């Protein structure tokens, strides 16, 4: 597994590689075969009453990505939020005998298992605590690194309070229906992103739990997802898909394999009424909607009009042209804006640096915030800015 992660270019750092070669993953996933334990895949450990995954041992690719983002040094004190044991053991390898690893989980089953398995794997020094990660673990603070391994919606104040100056938080942050593992450095009291990558994690439970809200557009066959901070806007959309479709093309060609997550975040940063359109297979089959990508397309909604990203085949094989479909009174205007912003992304940001995220407390005055697109969370304001080369 380690060989594969190195040859695939997932692991670049030789210390992370050495940690992967040292820790026996199968000890942490005794419920699966050796072969599965050393496959680059997530291992499901627990589901809730509805069958939804609530605890896993994470996919090695994602674990490696986050460890590299975290830049763990020998002697560091590290807090891991969301336990499984495996990542905590890797962290212990990286901090060495002079460092300290504390891993916390809200679920007693998970901490009991992690504790036992860490001892069995030869890492009895890792401290395992059952508590809600929203409050961190002040007893072992300050931490040089906080590594969150469960989807978060916000930066909990406790993580910041318990972080040493110059420290780093790596967290899978969910914004506008996408989760990105983001490494934030704490500089002069402000968290600023230094790297990011799209990923997936189970949802946070407890005090920091939050969910997307779905607005039906055509029964529950087509719906729109919004974050909590977008809820005050009224979106009367019943029957809007029966209005004639208006289409605008952007002139932007993409390979069908190219991820569009940065385009989605750019559209979220620049369009009012941004949301994500999701359609069930039956709605796609009946051509009620034609989103791109098919599992969820960027959309904008205002005053009874909807527009969303679509695609049509391009002359070159395996390429499509991005465009927008709209329904409702302002469909021509909205599709034009969507297509124009898609072009702007292509021109200015497609091959440029990642967006930069900064985190300020929710109480910050507007003049204390950097210019950019602001997302309000319960505890903080996330500012997204788009640097150009
Ligand atoms: C993806 S798993 C962690 C994987 C683990 N780091 C590993 O080594 O593979 C996510 C864990 O987060 C836990 N969790 C969910 N909400 C939490 C919260 N508020 N505080 C602490 N842990 C939480 C879940 O119980 C679950 O065990």
From TrEMBL:
Top-level taxonomic group: Bacteria
Main subcellular location of this protein, as a coarse class: cytoplasm
Keyword entries, A-Z: Cytoplasm, Methyltransferase, S-adenosyl-L-methionine, Transferase
Compartments reported by the entry: Cytoplasm
EC number: 2.1.1.77
PANTHER family in alphabetical order: PROTEIN-L-ISOASPARTATE O-METHYLTRANSFERASE, PROTEIN-L-ISOASPARTATE(D-ASPARTATE) O-METHYLTRANSFERASE
NCBIfam families attached to this UniProt entry: methyltran_FxLD (TIGR04364)
Family designation: Belongs to the methyltransferase superfamily. L-isoaspartyl/D-aspartyl protein methyltransferase family.
Protein name: Protein-L-isoaspartate O-methyltransferase
Organism, scientific name: Kribbella sancticallisti
């Amino acid at each position: 597994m380690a060989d594969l992660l190195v040859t695939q270019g997932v692991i670049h750092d030789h210390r992370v590689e050495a940690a992967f070669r040292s820790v026996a993953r199968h000890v942490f996933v005794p419920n699966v075969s050796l072969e599965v334990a050393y496959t680059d895949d997530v291992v499901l450990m627990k589901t809730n009453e509805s069958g939804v995954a609530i605890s896993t041992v994470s996919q090695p690719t994602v674990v490696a990505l986050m460890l590299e983002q975290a830049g763990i040094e020998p002697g560091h004190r590290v807090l891991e939020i969301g336990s499984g044991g495996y990542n905590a053991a890797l962290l212990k390898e990286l901090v060495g005998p002079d460092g300290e690893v504390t891993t916390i989980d809200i679920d007693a089953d998970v901490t009991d298992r992690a504790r036992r398995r860490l001892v069995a794997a030869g890492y009895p020094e890792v401290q395992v605590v059952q508590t809600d990660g929203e409050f961190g673990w002040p007893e072992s603070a300050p931490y040089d690194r906080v590594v969150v391994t469960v989807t978060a919606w916000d930066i909990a104040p406790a993580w910041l309070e318990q972080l040493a100056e110059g420290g780093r938080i790596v967290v899978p942050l969910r914004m506008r229906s996408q989760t990105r593992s983001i490494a934030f450095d704490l500089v002069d009291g402000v968290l600023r992103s230094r790297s990011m990558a799209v990923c997936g994690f189970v949802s946070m439970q407890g005090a920091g739990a939050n969910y997307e809200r779905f607005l039906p557009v055509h029964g529950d066959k087509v719906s729109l997802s919004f974050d909590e901070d977008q809820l005050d806007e009224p979106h009367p959309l019943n029957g809007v898909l029966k209005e004639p479709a208006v289409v605008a093309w952007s002139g932007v060609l993409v390979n069908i394999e190219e991820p569009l997550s940065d385009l989605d975040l750019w559209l979220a940063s620049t369009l009012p009424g941004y949301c994500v359109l999701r359609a069930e297979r039956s709605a796609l089959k009946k051509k009620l909607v034609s989103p791109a990508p098919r599992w969820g397309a960027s959309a904008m909604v205002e005053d009874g009009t909807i527009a969303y990203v679509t695609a049509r085949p391009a002359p070159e094989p395996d390429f499509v042209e991005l465009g927008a479909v709209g329904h409702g009174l302002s469909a021509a205007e909205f599709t034009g804006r969507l297509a124009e912003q898609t072009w702007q992304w292509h021109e200015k940001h497609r091959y440029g640096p990642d967006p930069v995220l900064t985190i300020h407390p929710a109480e910050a005055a507007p003049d204390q915030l950097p210019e950019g697109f602001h997302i309000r969370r319960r505890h903080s304001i996330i500012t997204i800015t788009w640097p150009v080369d």
